[in-house]
């Protein structure tokens, strides 16, 4: 059987299209309901995967939706692609019938603002209880409008639906189920205010519901949907839209303004301007825009006006054609230093779907200021382009834009999709296509999926931006071990590298418990070996929202200056190691040392390799979180001048009190610089969370004994008594065919004179699985259970475990 792939029966991208008693039959992507306003009545639509999909504004009346997914697995009826809050797209199903075979979800969110309503619709028992899937938009479910109202049938039970399904107000519902409200609400006309008609106040009800739309192009003066030539004009709560480029993606992108404004003293409040190229021709005069939404791709705010934009949302919608993959927000046209024109953006927000520059110089004295503005990561590092004014950069705005005379900003985008829908099917193929000595940023967008391959970026392939869709859905994985240079799943040797939203995984060490209880083996019974998920040795490399997963030597942070933000790093032994100069901010470090079992009693997070005092290398962990499945030390000295700092970092109780290990450099600890600067440690109590903050000295080096005598007296427990405590054991089946045993206590009394100890008076121990009463965390560990009720078969017959203290029981 051939692989199933997209095979539409119909694609509809024109406006005002209607279908009566028609049939649409395929398996995947049956009906590409792409763009425009559409009406379907008494139609039959059959398929299994996303078989009604797109960004149209469509009403389905009394249609039959047949799911044919018995050989597919889980099917999806809709994949709706509404792209922004002002986008009018959405699917409404009124009085329809859903039946067929297999199991199906009502829809998944193809874009962040996906909108689908099933109203008075019969649903057979093929509908999965959860109903919906956020798909690429997990974490942003509040933006999605998926709703069911008045539906019936065995598949319409709502009790197990996703919690984020939209509860529509009556006003919201009426706007969707009334055909005239939903698909006939655009004012399809061109509007022009002539120069001799000043003092007009145009007021809509909201920019979502009051729309003036037209589709024309090719002339920035004659094509705009709305033209304002008069002075003293005010507009409020209206959407101005030019649909020429928006709804006809295959045509060459060209000038198609939504609005032309050339009168003096003109203001817009809560309005929207939507097009692709030259959206807002802010031509001449003094203008004010407040809380407006402006969407486009190329020069979408341009002209020679003197304008102030306050608290506006600027949305860059990269179209994929006509702009070489990079957008431009502004193209300001100040002709000389005597002109007062310019654009000021105060407290705005810049977001979008692709890379953009803040602007390019439309005229030699172009002037643009962004002030206190939020800029998402779509803004290219260069920021600006001199365009036709090269050689006159000094005459442009004095904002911090430093134009490069050696490297152009031509952000090219390459798409990797293992299903064959992109430019390449493997990540390495895409990287190989980048020319050596490249000096312009190239974005490689990796579609969701697990790419089972080794990936390497050679030293001469600079300026690569690897972009996944989400680290939970975009993964590069391989399984190799034994050589920290040759084994990594991902290797980056080039300078100027950025990665975002990707998981790098080395699955070579996949531990399982052997018959004799020894965890410290890999799947073949060998000792766990070095198996890096990533090797990074180029300079100026950054990782955002990435994950690195292995067991030993997960992240070989080898050489160069590196930055990691909001990353997840998992391992057990030296899982961040090397001699780089790296800053880890707001990362989650997970010490999965339980995988090692009793054969390896604890793990190590960092093994930093600074060789001498003159080296600038070291690791700084700022605002991180440390959790895990078993005990760990913060690090051990990989080289004699090892340097690691944990600053304002949450450390759960998996971090052992000694904190550090001098390793091969015992008696040379004065060279090792491993301070913990004011970390915040939260102690977890039995009956809730005791959020006691322990503050270390400002600069604290440890010696081999690591006594931490600087602990405040009021933090050190002199002895704790738990009275009538209920202890609930939750030891489950965490791995197939493996029996796990838990531990209730791990008491750490260190000497005969230490008054510490735990006393449990009365109370009960209940739950699932089996546990030891405790294991000896310290040589003089002391725990007493008195008059305590133990549920049957909870406590293992042995009762206690000596742990680190075998031979000293």
TrEMBL record:
PANTHER family: ACYL-COA THIOESTER HYDROLASE YBHC-RELATED (PTHR31321), PECTINESTERASE CATALYTIC DOMAIN-CONTAINING PROTEIN (PTHR31321:SF85)
Compartment(s): Secreted, Cell wall
Keyword Flavoprotein applies: no
Family named by the database record: Belongs to the pectinesterase family.
Keywords, in A-Z order: Aspartyl esterase, Cell wall, Hydrolase, Secreted
E.C. number(s) listed in UniProt: 3.1.1.11
All copies of domain Pectinesterase catalytic, residue ranges: 8-184, 189-390, 414-664
Species of origin: Cannabis sativa
Active site: 299, 574
The reaction(s) this protein catalyses: [(1->4)-alpha-D-galacturonosyl methyl ester](n) + n H2O = [(1->4)-alpha-D-galacturonosyl](n) + n methanol + n H(+)
GO biological process assignments: cell wall modification; pectin catabolic process
Identification of the protein by name: pectinesterase
GO molecular function, one term: pectinesterase activity
UniProt keyword Mitochondrion present: no
Pathway(s) annotated for this protein in UniProt: Glycan metabolism; pectin degradation; 2-dehydro-3-deoxy-D-gluconate from pectin: step 1/5
């Amino acid at each position: 059987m051939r692989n199933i792939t997209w095979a539409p029966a119909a694609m509809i991208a024109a406006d005002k299209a209607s279908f009566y008693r028609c049939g649409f039959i395929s398996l995947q992507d049956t009906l590409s309901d792409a763009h425009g306003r559409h009406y379907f009545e008494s139609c039959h639509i059959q398929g299994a995967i996303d078989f009604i999909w797109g960004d149209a504004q469509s009403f389905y009346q009394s249609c039959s939706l047949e799911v044919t997914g018995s050989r597919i697995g889980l099917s999806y009826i809709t994949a709706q692609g509404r792209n922004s809050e002002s986008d009018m797209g959405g699917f409404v199903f009124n009085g329809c019938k859903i039946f067929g075979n297999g199991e199906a979800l009502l829809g998944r969110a193809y874009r962040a603002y996906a909108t689908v309503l099933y109203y008075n619709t019969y649903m057979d028992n093929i509908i999965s209880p959860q109903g919906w899937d956020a798909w690429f938009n997990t974490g942003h479910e509040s933006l999605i409008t998926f709703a069911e109202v008045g539906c019936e049938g065995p598949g319409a039970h709502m009790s197990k639906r996703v919690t984020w399904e939209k509860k529509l107000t009556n006003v919201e519902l009426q706007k969707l189920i009334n055909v005239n409200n939903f698909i006939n609400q655009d004012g399809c006309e061109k509007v022009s205010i002539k120069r001799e008609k000043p003092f007009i106040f145009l007021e809509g009800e909201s920019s979502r519901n009051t729309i003036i739309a037209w589709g024309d192009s090719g002339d920035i003066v004659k094509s705009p949907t709305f033209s304002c030539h008069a002075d003293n004009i005010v507009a409020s709560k209206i959407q101005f839209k030019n649909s020429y480029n928006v709804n006809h993606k295959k045509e060459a992108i060209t000038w198609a303004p939504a609005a032309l404004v050339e009168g003096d003293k003109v203001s817009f409040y809560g309005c929207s301007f939507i097009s692709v190229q030259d959206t807002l021709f802010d031509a001449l005069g003094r203008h004010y825009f407040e809380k407006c939404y402006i969407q486009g791709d190329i020069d979408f705010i341009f002209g020679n006006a003197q304008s102030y934009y306050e608290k506006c949302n600027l949305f860059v919608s990269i179209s994929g054609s006509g702009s070489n993959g990079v957008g431009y927000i502004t193209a300001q046209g100040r002709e000389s230093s005597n002109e007062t024109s310019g654009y000021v953006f105060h407290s705005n927000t810049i977001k979008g779907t692709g890379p953009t520059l803040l602007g390019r110089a439309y005229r030699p004295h172009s002037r643009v200021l962004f002030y206190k503005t939020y800029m998402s990561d779509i803004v290219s590092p260069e920021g600006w382009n001199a365009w036709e004014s090269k050689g006159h950069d000094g005459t442009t705005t004095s904002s911090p834009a430093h134009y490069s005379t050696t490297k152009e900003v031509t952000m090219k985008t390459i798409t990797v999709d293992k299903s064959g829908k992109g430019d390449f099917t493997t990540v390495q193929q895409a990287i190989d296509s980048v020319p050596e000595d490249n000096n312009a940023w190239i974005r490689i967008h990796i579609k969701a999926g697990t790419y089972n391959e080794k990936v390497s970026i050679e030293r001469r392939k600079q300026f690569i931006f690897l972009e996944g869709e989400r680290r939970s859905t975009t993964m590069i994985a391989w399984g190799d071990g034994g050589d920290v240079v040759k084994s990594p799943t991902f290797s980056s040797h080039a300078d100027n590298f950025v990665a975002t939203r990707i998981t790098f995984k080395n699955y070579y060490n996949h531990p399982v418990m052997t018959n004799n209880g020894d965890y410290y083996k890999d799947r073949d019974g060998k000792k766990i070996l070095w198996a890096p998920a990533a090797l990074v040795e180029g300079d100026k490399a950054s990782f955002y929202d990435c994950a690195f997963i292995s067991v030993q030597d997960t992240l070989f942070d080898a050489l160069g200056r590196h930055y990691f933000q909001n990353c997840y790093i998992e391992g057990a032994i030296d899982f961040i190691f090397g001699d780089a100069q790296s800053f880890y901010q707001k990362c989650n470090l997970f010490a999965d040392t339980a995988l090692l079992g009793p054969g390896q009693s604890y793990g190590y997070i960092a093994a930093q390799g600074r060789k001498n005092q003159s080296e600038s290398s070291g690791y700084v962990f700022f605002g991180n979180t440390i959790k895990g499945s078993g005990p760990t030390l913060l690090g051990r000295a990989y080289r004699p001048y090892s340097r690691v700092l944990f600053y304002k970092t949450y450390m759960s109780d998996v971090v052992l009190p000694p904190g550090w290990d001098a390793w091969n450099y015992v008696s040379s600890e004065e060279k090792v610089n491993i301070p913990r600067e004011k970390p915040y440690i939260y102690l977890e109590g039995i009956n809730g969370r005791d959020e006691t903050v322990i503050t270390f000295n400002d600069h604290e080096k440890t010696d081999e004994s690591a006594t931490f005598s600087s602990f405040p007296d009021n933090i050190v427990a002199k002895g704790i008594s738990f009275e009538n405590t209920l202890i609930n054991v939750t030891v489950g089946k965490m791995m197939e065919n493996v029996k796990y045993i838990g531990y209730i206590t791990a008491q750490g009394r260190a000497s005969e004179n230490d008054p510490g100890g735990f006393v449990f008076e009365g109370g009960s121990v209940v739950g699932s699985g089996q546990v030891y009463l405790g294991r000896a965390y310290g040589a003089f560990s002391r725990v007493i259970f008195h008059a305590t009720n133990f549920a049957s078969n909870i406590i293992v017959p042995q009762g206690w475990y000596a742990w680190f203290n075998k031979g000293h029981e």
